[in-house]
Design goal:
Elements lengths: L2 H88 L3 E6 L4 E6 L2 E7 L2 E2 L1 E4 L5 E4 L4 E4 L2 E4 L2 E3 L3 H4 L20 H11 L2 H4 L4 E3 L5 E4 L5 E4 L6 E3 L3 E3 L1 H10 L5 E4 L1
Parallel strand pairs: 1-15, 4-13, 12-14
Antiparallel strand pairs: 1-2, 2-3, 5-6, 7-15, 8-11, 9-10, 11-12
Length: 260
Amino acid sequence: MKPNQTIFLVSLAVCLGVCLLTLAYSARKVNAWSEEAEFRRAEALKASLRCDTLSAVNSFLAGEAERATELRMRNDSLRLRLEEVRLAEEYPGYYLVIDTFQNRFHLRRGGMLVRTGFVGTGKGWTEAAEGRIWDFSTPLGLRRVLYKTRNPYWFRPDWYWHEQNLRPPTPDQEVVVPQDLSWEEQVAFFNDSLTASQRLQVRVVPGALGSYALDLGGGILLHYGTGRGHNVSHGCIRLGHDDLEAIFRTLEVGSPVVIY
């Protein structure tokens, strides 16, 4: 064999050896990577299963919380219905029942139904675009008429503006309805003499609550309002004009009002 051929064969053998070693090393690396990938896939599957389990637990707990809230409301409703039965048997005068589920009122005396009709009650949790949250629910329970007012004023709270993503007027921006006018004249002035933008700056509004209001305490009033038959109010109880006047003339200060 010629020397050149020998050198060629030796070089070829060396190259083949290097290639074989490289292939063997690469195979070990690929196997290691495959094992690591399989391990990571198994860990990811475990994590996914844990997330699914936690999600299922959270859903279950949320459902249980909703059921607990519903049961508590039913329990309160039953307790207050029993209070209504007690009033029918023991209370000698007129009393009022507010059903926030059906949004109806029942004016009663003993077991006799005197008058019934639709009301608007609290709309519950409300969130404005700026992130403010309020609970505008009508509180359940047994209350009594604390005050009765003719020609009431609505003192707009700050949430009136915040709920519309507006700023409440500052004292120098506030528009005041002339106090030397009669209440009826003030109502006409507010509705007819002010522009829409000016009305928005009035904090003490005549006529918005109707001609009568009955104060049940805690900021909860019986007053005139729209949306009767629905959960639309900010906690107060809205009535039609005729129903409000009948209730105002019938109930006395101290008369019971059952809200369930």
